[in-house]
Design brief:
By secondary structure, this protein is of the alpha/beta class. The chain is built from 14 helices and twelve strands. A six-stranded parallel sheet has the order 3-2-1-4-5-6, with helices on both faces. The protein has two domains: about 1-190, NAD(P)-binding Rossmann-like Domain (Rossmann fold, 3-Layer(aba) Sandwich), CATH 3.40.50.720; about 200-380, Rossmann fold, CATH 3.40.50.720. The chain is globular and about 70 Å long.
Length: about 375
């Protein structure tokens, strides 16, 4: 099958490489001409495991800056362009709109399938189908459920594939693509586009609730004098199959490029359909309060007033992304209070933030590449 991917960022390139590995002919587009050249020359660097190796071994993948070239040369067209959050919590779908305009301006869409993989507002994909009505192309919504740092693995071993649309042929073609990618039998859930859009953000929101529950339990145990038993208690709770152990860990709170914004988006959408759900808002408020709880805990436990040491300011260890990172926010709060903080970090993250943070906090922030570079006692922030 000829597969096109518009938007070859972290998610798009991983999906494209897995499609190519499974025997499909793949063409990807991206707005960055330098990046496109690097893809065609097999020269990219990626923090995502397997990406570089898959790219080096690929024979039927090529890149372009032209969305029209992707549309012309593909039977099934996926898009993974960004959908940033707006102030009200909804998603800005303008980049997807640009892709739709390219489809509208394409002379021949007959029998093609367009798959939106970006996270969008519920109801958005239906409006795209309406705009393309009569052009012979069917629109589907098919989001991924992945984590940064394990995208390839997560795509190969997905618990389920969510797909919203109408046309049976399109459902069949999309399911076939995933069956080729998956390491085992795929659980394929066809449904309406809007239901799939709600399900996507609903799943991520449930994870924020579970993380917040674990942190609430940790706070209760700590204030009850049982702080050293937090992990044992949560292991016991997670062993109940009605609850499950995944994401049930005490820590810094949720962050990163997906969970916070999806939580806000579900709260916003609920209000647009006449519901005043409090759960997403309460979860956000608790996440903020928990950050303050963690900061107080670190200061109270650091009885000798030592410099602090933290492994990474990314939203999770091993990542190079600091967007809405609880670690980054904790470090900034400690620096604002005048504490010295050693940060062990990847070169990419140091390059992104070192100058900015030193300008703000001077010698109080010290980046290191490994703990051996620290030559004084420190208090380790171990979350």
């Amino acid at each position: 099958m000829r597969i096109g991917v518009i938007g070859a960022g972290r998610l798009g390139i991983c999906f494209a490489l897995l499609c190519e590995e499974s025997g499909h002919s793949v063409i990807v587009s991206d707005v960055q001409s330098k990046y496109v050249s690097q893809l065609n020359n097999r020269e990219i660097f990626s923090n995502e495991p397997e990406v570089e190796d898959l790219l080096m071994r690929s024979e039927n993948l090529r890149a372009t800056t032209s969305n029209q070239e992707v549309i012309r040369g593909s039977d099934v067209i996926f898009t993974f362009v960004p959908t940033p959050s707006l102030a009200d919590g909804s998603y800005d779908c303008s980049y997807v709109d640009m892709v739709v305009e390219d489809l509208i301006n394409s002379p021949d869409l007959q029998d093609k399938v367009f798959v939106i993989g970006s996270t969008v507002n519920p109801g958005y994909s239906d409006t795209v189908q309406d705009r393309l009505q009569g052009r012979g192309i069917d629109v589907f919504y098919n989001p991924e459920f992945i984590a940064q740092g394990t995208i390839i693995r997560d795509m190969r071993t997905a618990d389920m594939i969510l797909c919203g649309g109408e046309d049976p042929r399109g459902f069949s073609e999309i399911q076939m693509i995933y069956e080729d990618i998956q390491d085992s039998d795929v659980h394929f859930y066809p449904m309406s586009r809007k239901a799939a859009e709600i399900t996507k953000i609903g799943v991520n929101c449930f994870l924020t609730y579970k993380i917040s529950y674990a942190n609430m339990m940790g706070q209760i145990l700590y204030n009850s004098g049982c702080g050293d038993e937090i992990h044992n208690v949560l292991d016991a709770v997670g062993d109940d199959t009605r609850v499950g152990a995944k994401y049930l860990r005490y820590g810094l709170g949720f962050g990163g490029p997906c969970l916070p914004r999806d939580n806000r988006a579900l709260g916003h959408y609920a209000r647009t359909v006449g519901l005043e759900y409090s759960l997403p808002d309460v979860t956000d408020d608790f996440n903020d309060a928990h950050a303050n709880f963690i900061k107080r805990y670190c200061i109270e436990q650091n009885v000798d007033n030592l410099p602090f040491y933290i492994e990474s300011i990314a939203f999770k260890k091993g990542s190079d992304m600091t967007v809405e990172s609880p670690r980054f926010l904790l470090v900034e709060d400690l620096l604002k209070d005048g504490y010295t903080v050693y940060v062990q970090e990847l070169d990419d993250v140091i390059d992104q933030h070192e100058d900015e943070l030193i300008d703000l906090y001077g010698d109080n922030i010290i980046f290191v590449k490994n703990p051996a570079e620290i030559h004084e006692p420190v208090w380790r922030i171990d979350f």
